[in-house]
Write a structure and sequence with these properties.
With 271 residues, this protein is an alpha+beta fold. The protein contains 11 helices and 10 strands.
C-alpha cells in the first residue's frame, strides 16, 4: 500500500493513498475534519453508511466506531486534508464562550459537502505543504481556530460535540455489542466506550453472553456475512470488509469451517 502523509503540524496533514483501496476500523481520539481533494471514501457505522467524494467535507467525532474504506478514483489518488480538533485545543477555545445549557452530544458524522467557507479555509492550506522547514505553530493555530468558528457558524448544534469533554459513561453492554460487533477494535477500546475497564468488560461480557468476546464476535460476523451472501447476493470480496474481517482468505477459511461451504460455494448455490 502506497500511503503518503505530509504534516504541517501534528494536527494538520495532507494524506494520500495510491492503491485500489485502503480499509481500516477506526476510533479517533480527536474530532477529525476532512476535506476531499480526490478519491472516494465509504464510512460504515452501526446504523448508517456514508459515501464521500471530491469536494466533500465531513466532521467525524472522537470515540465514534467506524469502518472506513478509501478508494482512488478516475486515475487520481485518494487525497485529503485532515485537521485534528483535539480536546486540549477545544477546551481553550470554549473556556470563554457561554454555550448555554449543557447539551447531550449527538454522536453522528457531520456532512458539509463542499461548503464554500470550509472549502476556502482548508484549500488555503495546500500551498503550505510545499514550504520547506517548520511550519509556524501560531499560523496553524489560526487556521484551526478559523475552521472551528466556521463549523459553529454553519451548524450551531456542533457545540454539543466539540464542547463535550466527558469520558464515555457506563452503558448497556448487550445493546452496544449488538450494534457494533462488526468493528474490529481491541477489547480495551470496547471496554472504554462502554464505561468499563478491560477486566470489568470481560467479566460482564461472560455473564451476559455466556462465552468469550472473541468467540462471540467471530460468530456474529460470520452470521452477518452469511446474511449478506444469501439474502443480499453480495460478493465475498464486498462482504468480508464490511463485517469486520481483515483478510479474505482467513474469512473464507473460518466461514467454511462454520458452514461447511466457502463463501463462493454458498453464493453459487443460492437461487
Amino acid at each position: 500500500m502506497e500511503h503518503l502523509s505530509k504534516y504541517l503540524t501534528r494536527d494538520i496533514k495532507l494524506s494520500s493513498y495510491e492503491d485500489k483501496l485502503f480499509k481500516s476500523d477506526l476510533l479517533f481520539d480527536d474530532h477529525m475534519l476532512v476535506w476531499f481533494i480526490s478519491g472516494e471514501t465509504r464510512i460504515i457505522q452501526a446504523e448508517s453508511t456514508f459515501n464521500f467524494k471530491t469536494g466533500d467535507i465531513f466532521l467525524i467525532p472522537r470515540n465514534e466506531l467506524a469502518t472506513i474504506i478509501n478508494y482512488p478514483k478516475d486515475g487520481l489518488p485518494h487525497k485529503t486534508v485532515v485537521m485534528h480538533l483535539s480536546a486540549e485545543r477545544l477546551k481553550k477555545f470554549y473556556e470563554k464562550i457561554d454555550i448555554g445549557k449543557h447539551l447531550l452530544p449527538e454522536q453522528k458524522i457531520y456532512s458539509f459537502r463542499n461548503h464554500p467557507l470550509l472549502a476556502s479555509c482548508l484549500a488555503s492550506l495546500i500551498p503550505y505543504f510545499d514550504v520547506e522547514g517548520a511550519f509556524p505553530e501560531e499560523l496553524a493555530d489560526l487556521k484551526i481556530t478559523e475552521a472551528i468558528r466556521i463549523l459553529r457558524l454553519i451548524d450551531p448544534g456542533v457545540d454539543s460535540v466539540l464542547a463535550n469533554f466527558d469520558a464515555p459513561g457506563k452503558i448497556d453492554l448487550v445493546s452496544f455489542m449488538q450494534r457494533n460487533f462488526m468493528f474490529n477494535r481491541p477489547l480495551e477500546k470496547l471496554g472504554y466506550l462502554t464505561g468499563r475497564s478491560l477486566s470489568t468488560f470481560n467479566r460482564d461480557f461472560r455473564k451476559l453472553f455466556h462465552t468469550t468476546p472473541q468467540k462471540w464476535l467471530t460468530d456474529k460476523r460470520l452470521e452477518l456475512a452469511y446474511y449478506h451472501l444469501t439474502e443480499k447476493k453480495k460478493k465475498p470480496t464486498e462482504v468480508y470488509l464490511e463485517v469486520g474481517f481483515e483478510d479474505l482468505s482467513h474469512f473464507s477459511f473460518i466461514f467454511k469451517k462454520k458452514y461447511g461451504l466457502s463463501p463462493h460455494q454458498l453464493l453459487s448455490k443460492c437461487p
